[in-house]
Design a protein that fits this description.
Length: about 300
């Protein structure tokens, strides 16, 4: 097993057992190669490379950022995540922020409830605007389940990352009159999101490279209509009966595929509960229609569904 000895200057020294070899070959690599290595490490391990030696300390700050706060109970606090975003000067490659708690702007004592900013979460807006997002490949923003229908994502989320390829948004509300600029987005997941049909259609219309769409237990509109020339795969799960507790908000129980010429897979997910309705009007390349059960109340196939 090799042993590292740190010096005050360059890289640490690796001692091979019995070999007397004191050369640290890794630290002698060019900065851009070391930065690539660090950007592929989990967030904690990437940050810990700063402790190796002074040679490594500036590498992490300039390397493409890979920030994953985690949702398994071992993740970073929001304060730590904010500190990382402030200290890191390099471009961002991957940002995953989950189980966030929104900050109320006021409190309604008569109704005994917190009031949140209708302009969206200012922290998220500030974090993203302070970064170089031109190289961001993957983004996940999700709030804790208790705040599913109170927190509005800031509109800047949808237009500051032109290279984004994978996006997941959860337990939040999508802003109305959405302006989207995601020309390279390929995978999109919306789970426990409050949205309107108009917002949903505007989102898809400005994702010309979208290939995979996952919709899980969303609310805000009884029906979502879908048109996309590039979409190849759809996963759909309507809210379960026992999860409904907001009579004033419609559950997304109906999905209408109006025009999807490239679609080849449509997968109803865990269709044991609920009363989902799926209408497929134009999907000439559809080959796979996932398992159906009594959870799918109605399935309507149009004349242009020819592959099944």
């Amino acid at each position: 097993m090799a042993t590292r000895i740190d010096g005050d200057g360059g890289g640490g020294e690796l001692l091979g057992p019995g070999s007397g070899d004191r050369t640290d070959f890794i630290s002698n690599l060019p900065d851009d190669v070391l930065g690539t290595i660090i950007s592929l490490l989990p967030t904690r391990e990437g940050g810990r490379t700063q402790a190796l030696s002074r040679r490594w300390r500036p590498i992490w700050r300039a390397a493409p950022l890979n920030l994953d706060v985690g949702d398994d109970g071992r993740g970073f606090s929001e304060k730590v995540a904010s500190s990382i975003l402030s200290a890191h000067a390099g471009p961002a490659r991957r940002i995953l922020l989950t189980k966030l708690c929104p900050l109320p702007t006021n409190y309604d004592y008569a109704k005994r409830r917190a009031i949140y900013d209708d302009a969206g979460d200012g922290r998220i807006d500030g974090w993203l605007r302070s970064r170089d997002l031109s190289s961001l490949q993957e983004l996940e923003l999700a709030y804790s389940y208790d705040h599913c229908r109170t927190t509005l994502l800031p509109p800047s989320v949808f237009r500051l990352a032109p290279a984004l390829r994978v996006a997941r948004f959860g337990c939040c509300r999508l802003p109305p009159n959405l302006a989207v600029d995601l020309p390279h987005l390929q995978q999109l997941t919306l789970y426990r999101v409050t949205l309107t049909d108009e917002t949903f259609r505007a989102l898809l219309a400005n994702c010309p490279a979208l290939e995979s769409l996952l919709l899980e237990m969303n609310v805000g509109a009884a029906r979502l209509r879908l048109s996309s020339p590039s979409l190849r795969s759809i996963g759909f799960l309507s809210p379960w009966n026992e999860q409904r507790g907001h009579d004033d908000i419609d559950d997304v129980n109906e999905l209408v595929v109006e025009d999807a010429p490239s679609l080849d897979r449509l997968l109803p997910l865990i269709p044991r509960r609920g009363s989902a309705i799926i209408r497929i009007i134009n999907a000439p390349k559809l080959q796979i229609l996932g398992s159906l059960s009594y959870g799918i109340a109605n399935l309507h196939l149009g004349a242009t569904v020819s592959g099944l």
